[in-house]
Amino acid sequence: MGTQAVFNVLMGRYAVLTGEFADLMLGYYGATLGERDPAVVKAAGEHGKKPPITCRPADLLKPEWDELRAQALLAKGDGTDEDVLTYAMFPQVAAKFFASRGEGPRNLGKAPAPAKAAEPAPAAAAATPANGNGNGNGHANGHWPIRGPVSYEVKIRDRSHKVTVTPV
Q: CB within 8 A of 54, min separation 6: which ones?
């Protein structure tokens, strides 16, 4: 709609139509809330080279679930709805996925670096009160406090909410 509005301003009212706007005017996105201008519907039909429809757009789709299920089974899927949807969305990789999923998840990225040993908190941070260091952010020197919960008051529009975060 935004692109169509820009076209209307730049090139004249409905002088150029986007494909999506034409489909909207022809009924391919379903019924519109308001009346459609017959002249715009005619222009949309000429642009899209297809007729307007008045039925539910999904009624024009051919049923394909059973065919997709058969194809997923041929690709070694187990026939569940999940496998049919996986095959429908990713037909080129579904067979490889179905064949190897019994091996469990794979890490396709780099192996994580070994974790560094945690550094002890500086003496000043250990003495910091549980509510923070007075700067309102609930932590001292970039580290969360070690003891006690931290409470915040969060305001969203006109309502205040008390949130308490307890360290693990």
A: 27
Give the ranges where 34-90 is alpha helix by DSSP (H). 38-48, 65-74, 81-89
Give which of 60, 61, 25 is closest to 46, Cα–Cα.
25
pLDDT, residue 102, reads 87
- 0.85 cut: is pTM over it? no
Q: What is the pLDDT of residues 71-110, one digit of tens each?
A: 999 999 999 999 999 999 999 999 999 999 988 887 777 7
Where the chain has pLDDT below 70, the residues are: 112, 118-146
* CA atoms in the 13 A half-sphere facing the CB of 114: 2
- Which token pair is 106? 């794979």
Cα-based torsion angle of the residue sequence 75, 80, 83, 88 in order, rounded to the nearest 10 degrees: 90
Point out the domain boundary residue: 74, 100, 126.
Answer: 100
- The answer for 146, left when phi > 0, alpha when psi is -120 to 50, beta otherwise, is alpha
**What is the domain range of residue 12?**
2-57
The 8-class DSSP code of residue 24 comes to H
Report if residue 145 sits inside a domain. no
Helix/strand/coil for 3? helix
